[in-house]
């Protein structure tokens, strides 16, 4: 045990400088390590990591729930300036101590592999660049979070234009789409300048780490032991061969149902059967209550965990001005609670987003039970199986919570169609990142526009964007992952294959599929990626055969549900 107990709340350390933390690091560095002491030593280190990581998470939450909060921004900037670099340097020394000992507590084999990988990547010269990156991410969120539009005389966040894309009047949809895009394009110069700075910093980090490019750097940073860039390219090819034609079939059916000559970008969200848009909820409280009903039926224990989050104020769901875009689930490691952030505006997509983030939250709750912080870390590939798997496991319970039988069928069809349409878009985003960070011209925004356009034309068939070339070329700037979490996107595509396999099992036996899913959650990051997929009842593969089997299942289910609407 540490001689001086660590604080048990982030509130106790908000004003600390690094000098207050340093004695804890020094004590761990000085303590002898052997087979009898290593487990206690690792638990003490885990407690220190949990405190620092929760502090970081709470600061990130504060600046995303209100991008105009000057006090929160100042607190983050102080943390970046005073804590991040010495904390990472201390963490590196502790990694080196454990690795040099040759010791490995039971169940820590895979985390130790990640630790060795991270230690080999560490360069002190990159610490200031990491700090710069955190502030650049905040700049991106601030630019995007400030976007508003005037609709019917009222100033609203542009996120609140999304429901209008489901309006049955095509002119209204087009007006809303163009208004959102016009406002987005106003930030083009600012984001071009930010991208150039980001790209140069990332390239320098790779150079400092003696790696040929930033893709190689991120492959190590993300501990991608189980697949290669070539595997990603093969996945892109499988999507092009199998999914692009399936997506085109979906869009062609939509075009025929809407009696249109072509599908324009503002025709993607409207109900093709002439029904009013699904209106699953009006307020955040209603979204929580109805989601609670679903999750209680999926599994009472998981429903109980969601209730804890609602009761403890760990859900920030509704869109508002000066709120950062997107959605996420983060973890408060000391109090062992997850936190969900999103921008709900009353659409079915919001329901899916909350179920998705709830899957992440359940993963966090399960991993809290593991003894070491390294086991509570897991790659995005399996994290997204948890989230996308929950979307599909919860789907049978949409009826009776948010919808009647017909509405539930519409929602489920839309969900499956959206998942199929997602894979080609994912391929665009992932292929763009591979190109941007392995080619010198990747720092040039004009070249980025051209490459994004080329990839869009390769994968995104069936959407007529003639005359909208500027908006199409600007698409890479609208994807926050490219700016704030580089190379984090292919995981969604891989995980969706895993989630569909979990769902396939659930169609045969929902209880057994849920049991295996929860068994995977409980493993955290203590196993290899193929082992975690196997625990969930899936195979870690993304070849043409696997993609084909999943797409066929999804299309067959869509066809079956379509019969209930005809």
TL;DR?
The chain has 566 residues and is mainly α. 63% of the residues lie in helices and 4% in strands.
Chart the SSEs and their pairings:
Layout: H1 18-30, H2 38-65, H3 70-101, H4 109-121, H5 127-145, E1 148-151, E2 154-157, H6 170-185, H7 188-208, H8 214-221, H9 229-258, H10 284-298, H11 300-311, E3 315-318, E4 328-332, E5 337-344, H12 348-367, H13 380-394, H14 405-436, H15 445-459, H16 469-473, H17 480-484, H18 490-508, H19 510-522, H20 529-535, H21 544-562
Parallel strand pairs: 3-5
Antiparallel strand pairs: 1-2, 4-5
What does this structure look like?
The protein is 63% helix and 4% strand. The chain is mainly alpha-helical and 566 residues long. It has three domains: 10-105; 223-271 and 381-566, Neurolysin, domain 3 (Orthogonal Bundle), CATH 1.10.1370; 280-369, no CATH class. The strands form two sheets. It has a three-stranded mixed beta sheet with strand order 3-5-4, with helices on both faces. A two-stranded antiparallel ribbon has the order 1-2. Helix 3 (70-101) packs across helix 4 (109-121), helix 5 (127-145) packs antiparallel against helix 7 and helix 14 runs antiparallel to helix 18 (490-508).
